[in-house]
Amino acid sequence: MIVLGIETSCDECSAAVVEDGRIIRSNLIATQIELHKPYQGVVPELASRLHTEWIAQVVQSAIKNAGIDKRDIDAVAFTNRPGLLGSLLVGVNFAKSFAETLGIPYIGIDHIRAHLYAPQIENPMEYPYLGVLVSGGHTVISKVTGYDDVEVLGTTIDDAIGEAFDKVAKFYDLGYPGGVVIDRMSKTGDALAFNFPGPSMDREKHPYDMSYSGLKTAVINQRERFLVEGHEDTKENIAASFQRQAVNILMRRVEKALEDTGLKRVSAGGGVAANSLLRKELKDLEKGGYQVTFPSLKLCTDNGAMVAGLAFMYLKDGKRDDDNVTAYARVKAFKSF
Prior knowledge:
By secondary structure, the protein is α/β, with parallel strands linked by helices. It folds into two domains: 2-115 and 300-316, 2-Layer Sandwich (Nucleotidyltransferase, domain 5); 126-294, 2-Layer Sandwich (Nucleotidyltransferase, domain 5), CATH 3.30.420. The chain has eleven helices and ten strands. It has a five-stranded mixed beta sheet with strand order 3-2-1-4-5, with helices on both faces. A five-stranded mixed beta sheet has the order 8-7-6-9-10, sandwiched between helices. A hairpin with a 2-residue loop joins strand 7 (139-146) and strand 8. The chain is globular and about 70 Å long. It starts with a strand and ends in a 21-residue tail after the last helix.
């Protein structure tokens, strides 16, 4: 089965052709980073306009690069939740029209689920496992029992981890996107220069939940309080110390979830899964007998391949949408979905 996957949930305009859920025939990502860089963040109106201008060419190029004709496509998948509503609607409407013109089925895909599934495309892992989704909009720790069976154990109660990276980078004018810049600067900084605090949360009520607003506030407004004597107050040291604590907050919850659930496998996805320190910390779990996997860097960012890959699982089970399917900026608060 050949599935065309379309992803337009934020500022990446992506289309991919995937065969049988795992063979990536093409995966094009037209990034808008340079056009949003002057604003040091994604401008929703600009993002949706660029998707409108680019999507036809991106899809056409993905099909051409896959070495197929559009009539070879068996189904179309598209992200329809959650994300920037204007951007989502561009992808949803284009995908539906494209599929209806060819008379083939189509299906809307949850962006969160797609990221959790992305590692399965390249490195299939046996269920169940602990799924870790880390991105600019989401930070989720979940028990994944099947492609359509996800139980959320913990999530952020305020800022997502990627959002905290972006806000710290913006305040100190480090560059955009913030996560990439901070990761790079951290390599020449001293991670022990600042002793930034972790969140104060009721661990009984929130054993796996996270909070990043306090850390972000400390780094931006109170950094002098946390400078360790004998260390320099440099941007490189700020970046390294912030990154160390941000990753530590997540890893402590991941380790507790593994201990409490007894799971021996971990799979991470999302844009922040490309962070070098987080990848190292997760890989270090293998020393304790855990199996760890995450996507290649191209599948960490928003991409059409993860959408098509997950859609294949639904489609082969006979699931599809009708013309009433639309876009949703948010999903309901959930513990399982």
